Amino acid sequence: MAAVQGKAVADSVPVEECEEVEVLHIESPGEVWVRRRTEAWARFQLELSGLPERLSIGQLHSLPGPGDRLLCRYGGFLCRAEVLLLECDQYLLVRLLDHGVIKKVAQHQLGPLKEARVRSADPFSFPVSVAGVRFC
Fold first, then answer.
1. Distances in Å between the alpha carbon of 79 and those of 29, 48, 135?
2. What is the pTM of this model?
3. Rounded average pLDDT over 84-91
4. Confidence class of residue 16 from pLDDT cuts 50, 70 and 90?
5. Burial class of 90 by CB neighbour count within 10 A (0 to 12, 13 to 18, 19+)
């Protein structure tokens, strides 16, 4: 558990003076991926798990390109993924939007994300600098 002060690195949007976050991934001291601990995140997870698209994992009808947002089954969870790079015809490099990590995933782990509100929602994870984090 940590508290964030200052500004989010990704978009320079001021955050609350001090708010509780979950540290998700540490890329470097200047890039610590966190997620706010909120009811909205819990509700969003429930919404993801109830999407009808979850049944379409592994059924992409066209090859996705950079910037496309898809549904991804990773580690037993459903996640939103944004395509960064097509590595070959079977694997893609994606950012798991709400988890702050980049992963190489097989196409059979991906499916369409049709629900526009879910697809376009801002990521729940964001990077901060160690200078903006103090541990509680």
1. 26, 7, 27
2. 0.76
3. 84
4. low
5. exposed
